[in-house]
Amino acid sequence: MMKLIKRIKVSLKRLFSIKDTPSNLAGGAAVGLFFAIMPGEGVFTSLIIATLFKLNRMTTLISVGATNTWSTLALAPLAAIIGARIFHLDAAGIINDFQAVYASRQWLDISRLLIFELAWPLLVGFLAVSAACSLMCYLVVYTLANKRNN
User: Fold this and answer.
1) Residue 94, C-beta contacts closer than 8 angstroms, at least 6 positions apart
2) Based on C-alpha coordinates, what's the Rg of the chain?
3) Within 10 A of 106 (CB to CB), how many other CB atoms are there?
4) Nearest Cα to 72, choosing from 34, 18, 30, 112?
5) Is residue 81 domain-resident?
């Protein structure tokens, strides 16, 4: 726990030593966090998006670096629940359906189940969780950067 707190302090110190506008700092941090939470490659995608939208790439890298694979794994149950609710599915039912189809060895049903009943709800859930976390990150970094400038 102390290691995590130290990591956060170091990241915040680096973040606020960068000279840029509060909106660029906050935007870069939010983009980095969004893609860090989403499953897949976060670093390169974050840098491409930050470059396209002319956001601060250093805050993007700091934000991606402050999180890791464990944050994605920790948020996976929340993403599954949110995705299941959006698609009007039962999160526990999804797992039970998968186990039943997998045990039957009917590969066409497995691929259909994976794509339509597991992948889409999970992807939509991760999008919702990533967006919410990124919005909170943007608001916090923007507020702190504004206070630093005043």
Assistant:
1) 80, 84, 117, 118, 121
2) 18
3) 13
4) 34
5) yes
Q: Is residue 13 one of the residues assigned to a domain?
A: no
Mean pLDDT for 3-27 is 77
Query: Residue 13 CA to chain centroid, in angstroms?
Result: 22
Query: Is 35 inside any structural domain?
Result: yes
Return the C-alpha torsion angle 11, 16, 19, 25, nearest 10.
80
pTM equals 0.72
Q: Is residue 146 part of a domain?
A: yes
- The confidence band for 131, taking pLDDT boundaries of 50, 70 and 90, is very high
The parent domain of residue 29 ranges over 22-150
Q: State the total domains in the chain.
A: 1
Q: What is the mean pLDDT of residues 129-141?
A: 93
